[in-house]
Amino acid sequence: MKTKIINLILILLFVAGGTTDISAQIPKKVIEKYSTEIGVTPISKKYQELGGESGILGKPITEEKYCSDKITKFRRYEQGAIYFHPDYTPIEIHGDIYNKWAKLGYEKSVVGLPTMDENATPDKKGRYSSFEKGVIIWHPDLGAFEMHGEIVKKWIRIKDNLKVLGYPKTDEMITPDKVGRYNHFQYGSIYWSPNTGAHEVHGEILKKWAELGYEKSYLGYPVSDEMVTPDKTGRYNRFERGTIYWTPSKGAYVELKGKQ
C-alpha cells in the first residue's frame, strides 16, 4: 500500500512539473481520481474537517455507499451521516434531526436529500437542516419535526415565523376529512387544501376555529392568513364560508358569508 501511495505521489509531482503546489497545476478530475485511490474522498475530507472520530459524527459504521439514485454517495457514522452529490459539497446531518430523517425514510422520504449542514435557528433556540423538498426543525422542548411542500413554503414566507407560529410540534399530517394537510406549531397552525392553498391561523382565532371543529366545521378551510381589520382594532381570518373576527372587546366571533 505504501508503495502504491508513493507511486501516486510521484505521478502527481511529475504531472505538476516537479512543483509541490500540486493543486494549482493538476486538473481537478486527476486529483479526484488519484485521491480516491489512496482513500481521500469528498466524504472523508468533510469527516476530518468535522473532527473525525472525536467530532459530532463519531466513528464510521459503514463504508461509503451509493444512494438509490446511483449518483449520490453516503457514509453513516455513530451519530449521523455525510452525503455527497458530485454537483454539490458534502453535507452532514446528525443527532435528533438525523434520527428523524431516518424514521422518515432517509433520501426516499418526503423531504429528500439534505442540501445544507445543520444550522442554528435565527433565535438560537433550535436547530434545522434543509432538504430538497422541505426542512426538519428541532427544539429542545419539542423534538424534531418535518415540514414540506406548500406548507413549508408558506411558513418560510411568514415574517417573523418563529414569533408568530413558533416551532413545529407535528409533522405534516392528513386532515380528518382526508382532503387537506396541516402542521401544528407552538402558537398556531398552517392548513392546506387543493382549493384554498396554504394559510396560517393562530391565537384566539385558531382557538375559536378549533372549538367549531376545524376544517370539518361549517366554516371550512381558511382562505387567508390572519390580518388586521380596516379600523386597526382587531384581527380576522377568512374561511370558505365565513370569517372569524377578534377584537379586544368582543373576543373571537363568527360572521357567515352573506351576513357580513
Note down, in words, how this protein is organized.
It is a single chain. By secondary structure, the chain is of the alpha+beta class. Among the domains are: 39 residues, no CATH class; 92 residues, no CATH class. The protein has 8 helices and 16 strands. The strands form 4 sheets. Strands 1-2-3-4 form a 4-stranded antiparallel beta sheet. It has a 4-stranded antiparallel beta sheet with strand order 5-6-7-8. It has a 4-stranded antiparallel beta sheet with strand order 9-10-11-12. β6 and β7 form a beta hairpin. The longest helix has 14 residues. It starts with a helix and ends with a strand.
Strand content: 25-35%
Q: What is the general shape? A: elongated
Structural classification: alpha+beta
- Which H/E pattern describes the elements? HHHHEEEEHEEEEHHEEEEHEEEE
Helix content: 25-40%
The assembly state of the depicted protein chains is single chain
What is the terminal separation in angstroms?
82 Å
| Rounded radius of gyration (Å) | 25 Å
Strand order of the largest sheet: 1-2-3-4
Q: Got a strand count? A: 16
Which runs of at least 5 residues are low in confidence (pLDDT < 50)? 1-26, 28-37
State the helix count. Answer: 8
- Largest beta sheet, briefly? 4 strands, antiparallel
Mean pLDDT: 88
Topology:
Layout: H1 2-15, H2 22-25, H3 28-37, H4 42-49, E1 65-66, E2 73-77, E3 80-84, E4 91-94, H5 95-104, E5 119-120, E6 127-130, E7 134-139, E8 143-148, H6 149-157, H7 161-164, E9 173-174, E10 181-184, E11 188-193, E12 197-202, H8 203-212, E13 227-228, E14 235-239, E15 242-247, E16 251-256
